Amino acid sequence: MLFLIIKRILLGFITLFIVSLITFVGTEILPGDACTTYLERQAFGEQLEACYRRLGLNVPAYERYVSWAVNAIQGDFGYSLSGEMPIKEVLGPRIKNSLVLASAAIFIGIPIALILGIVTALWRDKLPDVAISTVTIFAMTIPEFISATLLILIIAIWLEWLPGIVIVPTDVSFLELLPNIILPVIAIAMIMTAHMARMVRSSVIQVMASEYVQMAILKGVPYWKMVFKHVLPNALLPAINVVALTIAWLLGGVVVTEVVFNYPGLGRLVIESISNRDLPTVQALAIILASIYVSINLLADLMTLMLNPRLKTLQIRK
Amino acid sequence: MTVNSIYKEEKKSAFQKVSEVIITMASRPSGFIGLSILVFHIILAFISPYIAPYDFKAINPTLMLQAPSAEYWFGTDDLGRDVFTRTILGGRTALTITFFGSLIALLWGGLLGIFCGLVGGKIDDIVMRIVDAFLSIPWILAMLLIVSLLGTSTEVLIPALGFFYGKGIVRVARAATHDVIAKDFIVSARARGHSNFSIIWNEIIPNVRDAILVEGAMRWSWMLLGFSSLSFLGFGVSPPTPDWGLMISNARGLMSFAYWAVIAPIVGLSSLIIGINLTADAFAKALGIDRSTKAPV
Amino acid sequence: MSDIIQKVKNLSIGFKSKKGEEILILKNISTKIKKGETVGIVGESGSGKSTLALAMMGYVKHGLYTIGGECEFNSSNLLNMKSKDLEKIRGRKIAMIPQNAGQALTPNLKIGYQIDEALQLHSDLSEKEREKKISELLNKVRLPSPETIALRYPHELSGGQQQRVAVAMALAGTPDLLLLDEPTTGLDVTTQAHVLELLNFIAKDTGTSMVYVSHDLGAIAQVSDRIIVMYSGEIVLEGPSRDILKRPIHPYTHGLLKSIPKLSLAGLPESMPGSQPQPGIIQSGCSFFDRCNFSEDKCKNNSPQLEFLKELNTSVRCFNYEKLLKESQVNQNVNKIKNNSKDKEILNLSEVSISYAKQKLLDQIFNRISDDNPTVKDININIKKGETIALVGESGSGKSTILKSIAGLLRTKDGFIRFDENRNLSSDLKERNPNDLRIIQLIFQNPDESLNPNHTVEEIIAQPLKLYFGLKGEELNKNIIDLLQKVRLGEFYMSRYPRQLSGGEKQRVAVARAFAAKPDIILCDEVTSALDVSVQAAVLNLLQQLKEDFGTTYIFVSHDLAVVRAISDRVAVLYQGRLCEVGPSNDVYKFPSHPYTEVLLGAVLEPDPDIKPKLVAEDIVEEKPPEKGCSFQGRCSRILGDICKKDIPPWQLTDSGNAIRCHIPIKELQKEQF
Q1: Identical fold at C4-93+175-326 and C345-439+519-670?
Q2: Scanning A295, B276, C41, C559, which has its CA 20 to 30 A from the CA of C84?
Q3: Hey, is C488 helix, strand or coil?
Q4: Helix A266-275 to helix A87-122 angle, to the nearest 10 degrees?
């Protein structure tokens, strides 16, 4: 058991190591380097040299990777090119804001997804299922920027219930942020909830068709007791991993939503730093977003490990 | 003694098989709707240049932000361009790029997945770990980086999208191959001494093909979603080429006065994505594959 | 009448096909179950027997629906009862013991909880009393140390133990009627016999009525007072158990009993042609018409009704049952198989060991396998050209492992496999040349898995022909048709896919594919286990015919000792990957000398109420062979003491050429069995 946990954590670190290599090599092999791209190819001679020295680009690539990685582990990602300030300081409040947004969406989305998934599975092919499933198909397929735009148009512009664009400084307090995040949270939660609800539905349906559920019925177990004791624990266990993957995949949606709402989070920073060709910041963002992805999956794996009585037969997802 | 078979069904040609699958797909209401929308969009993409009433890039300052009328069915945008013209033309680039992107994703993802599933062991472990690492970089970050450094030409977008959306297909193809490879007919072929190539071509591919195709169809709708997000962020198609993502992004700022300029491309894009999605769903059901338990990665 | 507990009246259950046709699974079934009796329902897969059993609990599977009729229990119809009321009957009045307890126990709940749940629902016991009751129940089904078992999860138990838990769970509600759906299928021979004995004991002890559903007439014969025979969704014969097994008056049952191999009879039984029609095949006339030996013209267009014969207390669905009435007993004719073996040795296994152990790094570098206690060890067998040698044993005996190794799918750890006295086949596939691969072909247990579902029969049979002989075009075609005829399938099968064939037909295609390579040796891995009983004999006869035509050598692996008896010239008995006994079939079956052979043969269930299984040893499950001494020491009832635990027993030869590996002197071994 302990061995499995350690192994899983180690695998997570290996993944992160590969990610850092990929991003480093990726930014390395692309034409131009940080200095030439940042200075828009106008720099030469003195100016370029100075920039190289400042960024430490005058040493071989592997040495740069090692020193960058050593610093990154300690939380130091170097200097941003555009803001000329430590990336750490740029990132701090942005991470906080994005976390608020994402976790609100997750905490609202998961319970709704569970309820919808279970309801549609238990009333399979009946009216509640058909109705909810149709809605989830729409919610699942429409891109975040469309649902966000529509939300702004209808709720903020036509009905004037909530602010449509977030106009707050980066480091606002949580309470000031609250009315501003309602619409973005809805936009993100919608697509995520729809995905998760569909997975929960099919997982529950699968378990409902199993022999042990048939046996429970034949044993005379009342319907709801059967659902809660025999069906749900077995249906939701495998769903944990899938849900984690969905959440991680939808991180990309956060980026788009933040842009639509002009929300000061990591997502907008991604766009800004890429538009400014601020490669050190991009590298830092890649590592941070990848760590979030890896830790969500790690968490899901550990949860399944803890909850599953069949430790012996458990396959660690590769 | 004669042994009578219970079925009288005979072997079918490839064409018969394909048409049978399409008929099964269309026999469900959702599949029928999906297929119709998809076919409509494909036809539109082919004929729209010939039926467009106006020039999509003709700027006319006197006609800025006109509401829908008999003359301009969907109104005009902030530069006085006809929204109807731009909307019916707006799906062509997205459709082409994502279609070929999905083909590339299907090809490399499928082949690598089959290879990994077949080889197993250490090589499989290492390849999957690298794939996993690529998966953990949010696609949007990677795409933005590539596009910002290499530009937004079709030659960049198609392989880049194809690469990032192929990762998920690797997993599906690998899992399907794993399932098949334990079956006795593979063991039988191995014991007979068939070459690896022959086993892959004759025994494995026919049995994993359906799962991979369904996954590819699904990728298509996700890729379309991703591509239009890029366009929306200004990293996709460059203006003045009409594109739904770009049109929504441009008209968004003025939507309190001119909602039509936003609504028209929204309807265009949403309907296409839903159409592809429903079609992929119906496709999966027609082939008897349940893909609803899989994560969108 | 108060002694009737369950009454099924004109019950029809079916489903809607894709085209909207109503397809019947059960056709107008009527029967009664009396208090205290055990009724066996026997039929092949697809005969509707399980659907009938579930309907007796008021349960109809998802996708099926009741078309008409009733299942009456305590004079109320279960099929239109509200689920609230059903909950009070299920588990309390009628309980079910499922086929596959491993799948039917909820994986996340402990054994103790699952039994407790039944007690909570169906009794008024306090928590303390329930706890005691759980122990009692687990004791009753003879599970060791009930207290610890109760705390385990289902997956931590063996198949036999899971089945016992399912029995305990069913008994928790003290039901009046127990439904058993293939409760011993999938268990090992000895475990099966023990579970059946337990069920018999419970029936007597508690006086509950039982409905025992199975495809296995052997199991049915041991438990039931009355037998219902089902065919294609209909009851074709119903009556007292002994009469039905001894003097069946329906052609299907008659033919079936004739086609089942018996332990006491060497040689291949007569086979029944064809297979049971699939549901939905619209047929006028008798559903057994195609396969019947007694059919007349009227059978073709008129379907017979179930007729009750008062003097025999039997119902039969046949126009011509009188013909069968005249036959006093089932005369089983067997074709004695000719022993075709020549003196020439074709395959020699000497000191073969096979290991599944993972290789350590150092071993990988030196390309060796280090495992002190390998799965299979010390196998010495000489196989003669043209003989059929059978490897028998329970699951885990290593019989399939040996086959894999001969086929080259697994590498041997030690020892040699030699073909024709000089060609070394100890290597795995990669090191064998095409001809080495050609001379050995495999036929697998389940044709659903061994035939590629995406290939037509033509493509399947063409594969070896193309690979080994490079045949093309007209010649290839001719060869395929030829092979199909050899396995008695018509030319028109060429364009079919495996899913369009019945189980027996699929296995014939697999046989044709094996023979296409013109092999010297064919490895048969449980080739009849996945087939319906009525088809089994036909495939065995086909194999025997082909062997006589081609002079092929068979290595036949099976857990079914009666089948082995029918087809093999020689038998090798394996336990935990070690040989126990090797000898001519006649001798092994006549004088079971090794204690394990005795146990195995004693546990076989015969379709004859007069032959009861003998239970000699406990059915403990051993996970690994013992490190030292005799492999059977853990279960042997005649264990001598330390010598069995320390030393590997020596080979002893009997007069008839039977080799036995045991410490007990041979005279004594044979003496005690007479």
Answers
A1: yes
A2: C41
A3: coil
A4: 130
Q: In the CATH scheme, what is the homologous superfamily, with its name and number, of domain C4-93+175-326?
A: P-loop containing nucleotide triphosphate hydrolases (3.40.50.300)
Q: Which of A26, A149, A252 sits opposite B252 (nearest CB)?
A: A149
Chain C interface disruption, residue of B5, B20, B213, most C CBs within 10 A? B5
Predicted TM-score (pTM) above 0.90: no
Question: Hey, are the CB atoms on B266 and A152 less than 8 Å from each other?
Answer: no
In tens, the pLDDT along A276-300 reads: 777 777 778 888 888 888 888 888 8
* CB-count exposure of residue A172 (10 Å: 0-12, 13-18, 19+): middle
Q: Which residue bears the tokens 């009328």?
A: B69
Check B266 against A318: CB less than 8 A apart.
Answer: no
Subunits touching A (CB < 8 Å, at least 3 pairs)?
B, C
What are the contacts of C146-149 at 24+ separation with CB within 8 A? Answer: C149/C111, C149/C112
The total number of residues written for chain A in this structure: 318
pLDDT score recorded for residue B7? 41
Q: CB contact, 8 Å: C109 with chain A?
A: yes
Residue A57 predicted with pLDDT over 80: no
Q: CB distance C446–B184 less than 8 Å?
A: yes
Query: For residue B107, what pLDDT is reported?
Result: 92
B193–C429 C-beta distance less than 8 A:
yes
Which chain A residues touch B141 with a CB distance below 8 Å?
Answer: 252, 255, 270, 274, 282, 285-286, 289
Cβ-defined contact of A220 to C98 (cutoff 8 Å): no
Residues of chain B by 3-state class (helix, strand, coil), percent to 5: 70, 0, 30
Nearest CA in chain A to B263: A150
Which tokens go with C234?
């209909």
Extents of the domains making up chain B = 27-287
C228 pLDDT more than 90: yes
Q: Using CA atoms of C180, C182, C187, C191 in order, give the dihedral in degrees to the nearest 10.
A: 40
Residue C531, judged by CB atoms within 10 A of its CB (0-12, 13-18, 19+), counts as: buried
Residue type, C217: L
Q: Which residues of B12-24 are buried (b: 16+ CB within 10 A; e: fewer)?
A: eeeeeeeeeebeb
Contact B137/A290, CB-based, under 8 Å? yes
Reported as a single tens digit per residue, the pLDDT across C327-345 is: 766 666 777 766 766 778 8
Q: How far is C494 from chain B (nearest CA, A)?
A: 9
CATH topology of domain C345-439+519-670: Rossmann fold (3.40.50)
Q: Write phi, then psi, for C603 (nearest 5 degrees).
A: -85, -5
ipTM over 0.90: no
Q: What residues of A are in contact with residue C153 (Cβ under 8 Å)?
A: 309-310
CB B152 within 8 Å of CB B239: no
What does each C-alpha distance from B145 to A26, A101, B262 come to in angstroms?
Answer: 9, 24, 27
What pLDDT score was predicted for residue C572?
93
The fourth-level CATH superfamily of domain B27-287 is MetI-like (1.10.3720.10)
Helix (H/G/I), strand (E/B), else coil: C480 = helix
Contact residues, chain C, for A314 at CB < 8 Å: none
Instruction: Kindly determine whether residue B11 and residue C504, on different chains, have CB atoms separated by under 8 Å.
Output: no
| Nearest CA-CA distance, residue C175 and chain A, Å | 11
Domain map (residue ranges) of chain C = 4-93+175-326, 94-174, 345-439+519-670
Residue C347's contacts (CB-CB under 8 Å, 6 or more residues apart) are C382, C383, C406, C417, C418, C419, C425, C521, C553, C555
Nearest chain B residue (CA) to A205: B293
Domains, in order of start, for chain A: 95-276 (1.10.3720.10)
Sign of the dihedral through C-alpha C100, C102, C105, C111: positive
**What is the amino acid identity at position C673?**
Q
Q: Of the candidates B2, B185, B191, which has its C-beta nearest C407's C-beta?
A: B191
With an 8 Å Cβ cutoff, are A140 and B278 in contact? no
